[in-house]
Structures are given as structure tokens and as C-alpha cells.
Design a protein that fits this description.
The complex is a heterodimer of chains A (about 400) and B (about 170). Chain A is α/β, with parallel strands linked by helices and about 400 residues long. Helix content of chain A is about 40%, strand content about 20%. Chain A is globular. With about 170 residues, chain B is mostly beta strands. Chain B has a five-stranded antiparallel sheet with strand order 8-7-6-9-10. In chain B, strands 4-3-5 form a three-stranded antiparallel sheet. In chain B, strands 1-2 form a two-stranded antiparallel sheet. The termini of chain B are far apart. The chains are: A alpha/beta (about 400), B mainly beta (about 170). At the A-B interface, α4, α5, α6 and β5 of A face β6, β7 and β8 of B.
């Protein structure tokens, strides 16, 4: 019989420019509420997975810093890197350990301290997250540049406008304004978005997620451990789907969809027994990877929420707001909540755990009917993709 | 912030604690700067760079399964053969998508804002490169393009570039 994996504690730090804390303090900020929610002791944790991309931050062995800071010295650990999907890759690592029976309790901690470097350096490093030699060394692509190549193709194909993309920014800032942990807690208008400066045409500053510091902690446990310790109301991980794509963007057949997202979703749906035509009825709330506004539109279509070319229409109709067919990024998303690379995927699980328990701030709580939630986390420009389905009853 | 730190901050050369004025918090500015410059092996694909000197765009083709590789590689990912031959690509293609980089990486800050495109060549191979035309309103998806070697200044090395055959008027 397969072992079930539950989430017994989940918390996030405040996201933002966190020059007020160091790496250890930032890790502690999400770990403390997570372990206190779980009601366990550090001695119960057998293994800790640290999702972190690094390079912009000073510590080269982030997992070891976390271990010493959180009194986990002597336990097993590793650092997991899958670019912006490092958090989901960390969750997958912990999930597999518990499912296979090699551990009962695993901490997954995602953390990124991007502001330890200056912005141009961070722009430089993220731009190298593709194919360094063929696409960066000679042509200086940037992270917004990669997604801009998708945005240009998408807007052209479906006869859409830059302004249409700004609707994603408006929605996600609307919810970010209601999330006290978000990097940006203010609403923006279409005009502000349209008037913001180009970063990589057709994408503008307000189409882009910020450079953020943050951490998120999730404590995973086996069903045995949960029952033995009388832990109430765990969130269950139903399935995790995954895929990858080429490092060179030039090797892809089109720029209208992230193939890895489509494949990761198919695996996740199949493993959890959800058919694509019942998605909108079954999934109560979703967090999708909106590192840029175009990415959220691609996600709607790649995940099968809406048909090809209909993502913008669905957004404008309000289908991804609360009360719509499928509320998306009620945390503010990467756009407004912020995108601390290694922490993002873990923070999606934190947010959805709280959503499923009807435990988020007023004005951004989804209507929970079936107790199913979906997290979609992309690394790089579709280089990695993970889709995780959570359930709560 | 304690006044002692403020006094020391003013003599910044001697003391690495600086104040983030926006947030009024103290930061230690590391005194150990790291510079990275990579040495990437091109031994097995150096013919590609020789080809650029003659304005040729070369790719490799697997002699066993006929898979074409651009960027060129010395082994076949598909059938694992190491018997690959050099072929010359047609250079003619059409623009699949494009962008213009306004916020540049620091190592590209000495260039004017540049346009990047991906073109599909007749052989079905895609090439990503700078586009010679920097004016976005002159570019259009689907437009005919060719690839030419250009000298990248100020570094002075030859690299391939996308040239639109006809501009949007």
C-alpha cells in the first residue's frame, strides 16, 4: 500500500527587500510558525531539504546554515536547485522520501536572499539561467527577455495587446494589497502598468515580478506519524507532476505554450484521478507561476483551465478572481507577493494550505467546496515545471 | 541606528557597515569581491567559429540518424553516435518571435539597447541571435530573414546576426 504524505505545518516569512535580517534570521522567520503549527519537536525531523538557487547571496552551503540555525545539526540534508521551481523540487524530494518509507518527517525550507547583490548583478545572473554559452554570452538575454519572446509570439497569434497582459498585474496587485506578507501591498491600474518602463519589449516593469527576499517552510509527515501523534486536519499531497524542456529556447517548436507545464499537469491530473474536463469544477483555488504577466496567461491554457487563446478573455471576465470559475494567485502571485526564487514553490504550498483551511485574510479567501488546490511552479523559462495537487477534507 | 555606527559610516573606507537609508537598517558591505570569467571548451566545435570567418553558418549532422544540431555539438543526443559531419545551413528563414532588451545585464551595459529574434531556417532549424534592425516598428513575425556574420564591437569577434530581408514600412 502506498504511504500518504501530509502537510502538518506551513508558514512563510514576510516577503520583500529584507535588508533587516540575515540568511539565518530569514529561515527562522518561516520555520518557527511552521513547526509550532505542526506541534512537533525538532528531534522529530529526520531530514531537511533546502530549496535555494543562490549565487547572489553570500552563503555557499545554505542547507548547512539552515541546519545550524534551526538546531537540525546531525540530520540528513541537501540543497535542491531547479531554478524558480526549486521550491517544488524540494517538496517533491521530501514527498518521495516519505512515500518510499525512508523518512517519517521532513522539513522543506525554501529560501532566497536576492538583495545581497545589486540589481544589475541579479539581472545578469538570472539572464544566465538558460543556455549560458549560446544564448547569454553572445546575445545577452535576460529573464524578462526570454518571456518577452513568448509574449511577442502570443500577442501576435491571438491578436492581443500589451494592455491585455496588464490585467494580470492589476489582479495580482489587487490580491497582494490584501496579503500582509506580500512584497507589494498596493493596487495598480492598467494605466500605471502601461506607463511603466519597458524591461524587455513588450514586457514592462509592471509585467514583471520583483527581486525579493523571503523564506517558506513546509513540514511533511507520513500518515502513520500523523495518526500516531493525533495530528488533526493535515493537508494531503495528492500528486506531483513534473517535466523539463530544452536549455536553448531556439530548440523549441513554438512560443505559445510551455511544453513542460502541459506535461507536468497531465502527470499530476492522471496521478490524482482528475480528468481535464472536470478541472474547473473540482479545483477550488490555484497558485500559478506568474513571474511575468504572460506566464500567467500561458499557465491558464497549459494547465487546461481555459482553451488556447482564451486566457486573456477569461481573466477579463473575472474568471480567475474569487467567485470566478477558478481563482488564481489570491496571494498576489509572484508579481505582487514577490519571487524569492527558491522560496516561491514552497510558499505556493503554504498559501494553498491556508486557503484550503479557510485561513487567509479577508478579501482574498477562495470559496472552498471540494477541498482541492493546485500549485504550478516553473523553473527558468519552462526549463523545469512542477504541478502539485493538494487535498483537504 | 546607533550614533557610533553613523560616525564610522562617514569614514566608509575604514568601516564596511553601511546604512540602507530607505529602510534605516545596517548592512555589512563585504570586503571580498569575487570576479568570475569562465573558460568554456570549444575544441570539438571550433570549425563552427572558423565557418563564421567565411560568413558560413555551420551545423553538425549525425551520419547515423540524420539529426541536425544547431547550436553544433560533437555527439548525437538522439542515437548516441559520435560520427557527425559538418553541414552548411541555408541561412534563409523567417522570424518566429523577437524582443528588445531595455534593462541589460551589467556585462552588456556598454551596448545600445538590442533586439533579439528567433528565426526558423529552411532546414527547420531555429537560430536565436541579435537582429540588425533595432527599431521594433520595422519588425514583424513571419518576415523573411537571412543570417550574416557580423563583427561584434567593441570586442571585435565575428558572430552571426539576423538580417531582415525587407522592413515593415
Amino acid at each position: 500500500m502506498e504511504r500518504k504524505v501530509g502537510i502538518i505545518g506551513a508558514a512563510s516569512s514576510k516577503f520583500g527587500v529584507r535588508n533587516d535580517v540575515n540568511f539565518s534570521e530569514l529561515a527562522f522567520e518561516s520555520f518557527k510558525p511552521a513547526i509550532e503549527e505542526a506541534g512537533i519537536d525538532t528531534k522529530d525531523i529526520e531530514y531537511f531539504v533546502v530549496s535555494n538557487t543562490g549565487a547572489w547571496s553570500s552563503e555557499q552551503l545554505p542547507a548547512i546554515i539552515v541546519g545550524e540555525s534551526l538546531n537540525l545539526v546531525g540530520k540528513g540534508s541537501l540543497r535542491v536547485e531547479a531554478a524558480c521551481a526549486s521550491g517544488s523540487a524540494g517538496i517533491k524530494t521530501g514527498y518521495d522520501m516519505i512515500k518510499s518509507g525512508s523518512a517519517d518527517v521532513v522539513l522543506v525550507l525554501g529560501i532566497e536572499k536576492m538583495n545581497e547583490s545589486q540589481t544589475p548583478t541579479v539581472v545578469e545572473l538570472i539572464g544566465r539561467a538558460g543556455n549560458y554559452f549560446w544564448e547569454f554570452e553572445h546575445f545577452g538575454l535576460t529573464f524578462p527577455g526570454y518571456y518577452a519572446l513568448y509574449a511577442t509570439a502570443y500577442l501576435n497569434k491571438y491578436n492581443s495587446k500589451e494592455e491585455d497582459l496588464c490585467h494580470v498585474s492589476v489582479k495580482n496587485h489587487y490580491y497582494g494589497a490584501r496579503n500582509p506578507k506580500a512584497h507589494f501591498q498596493r493596487e495598480v491600474t492598467i494605466e500605471e502598468c502601461m506607463n511603466s518602463k519597458y524591461v524587455a519589449w513588450p514586457l514592462k516593469l509592471l509585467d514583471s515580478s520583483p527581486i525579493t527576499d523571503g523564506s517558506a517552510s513546509v513540514i511533511l509527515a507520513s500518515e502513520d506519524f500523523i495518526k500516531r501523534n493525533g495530528i488533526k486536519e493535515p493537508i494531503w499531497i495528492k500528486s506531483i507532476g513534473y517535466s523539463t524542456d530544452t536549455s536553448n529556447l531556439s530548440k523549441r517548436s513554438d512560443f505559445l505554450s510551455l511544453r513542460s507545464s502541459v506535461e507536468a499537469a497531465e502527470i499530476a491530473y492522471k496521478k490524482s484521478g482528475i480528468s481535464k474536463d472536470e478541472l474547473l469544477r473540482k479545483i477550488d483555488v490555484a497558485e500559478v507561476h506568474d513571474c511575468f504577466t504572460i506566464a500567467e496567461i500561458l499557465a491558464y491554457e497549459d494547465l487546461g483551465f481555459f482553451k488556447r487563446g482564451e486566457g486573456i478573455k477569461a481573466l477579463k471576465e473575472g474568471q480567475t478572481y474569487t467567485g470566478g470559475k477558478i481563482p488564481v494567485n489570491l496571494s498576489g502571485g509572484l508579481k505582487a507577493k514577490g519571487h524569492p526564487i527558491g522560496a516561491t514553490g514552497v510558499s505556493m504550498i503554504v498559501e494553498l494550505s491556508k486557503q484550503l483551511k479557510r485561513n487567509v485574510e479577508k478579501g482574498r479567501q477562495a470559496d472552498i467546496k471540494n477541498g482541492l488546490a493546485l500549485a504550478h511552479n516553473v523553473g527558468g523559462t519552462g526549463h523545469y515545471a512542477y504541478v502539485t495537487i493538494l487535498s483537504f477534507s | 541606528m546607533s550614533s557610533q555606527i553613523e560616525v564610522l559610516e562617514k569614514k566608509k573606507k575604514q568601516y564596511p557597515i553601511i546604512i540602507d537609508q530607505k529602510r534605516n537598517v545596517a548592512l555589512w558591505e563585504s570586503t571580498r569581491e569575487l570576479k568570475l570569467k569562465y573558460l568554456v571548451s570549444v575544441e570539438k566545435i571550433k570549425k563552427f567559429f572558423e565557418g563564421l570567418l567565411e560568413n558560413k553558418l555551420l551545423a553538425t549532422k549525425c551520419e547515423k540518424c540524420n539529426e541536425i544540431y544547431f547550436p553544433p555539438q560533437s555527439f548525437c543526443s538522439n542515437c548516441r553516435s559520435t560520427e557527425l559531419k559538418w553541414i552548411e545551413l541555408s541561412k534563409e528563414g523567417e522570424l518566429l518571435t523577437f524582443t528588445k532588451i531595455f534593462v541589460k545585464p551589467s556585462s552588456f551595459s556598454h551596448y545600445e539597447d538590442y533586439t533579439i529574434g528567433i528565426v526558423r531556417l529552411r532546414e527547420g532549424v531555429n537560430v536565436l541571435a541579435w537582429i540588425s534592425e533595432k527599431n521594433l516598428s520595422k519588425l514583424k513575425i513571419g518576415m523573411k530573414t537571412r543570417i550574416e556574420t557580423r563583427i561584434r564591437e567593441p570586442e571585435g569577434y565575428p558572430i552571426y546576426e539576423i538580417i531582415p530581408e525587407e522592413l515593415v514600412s
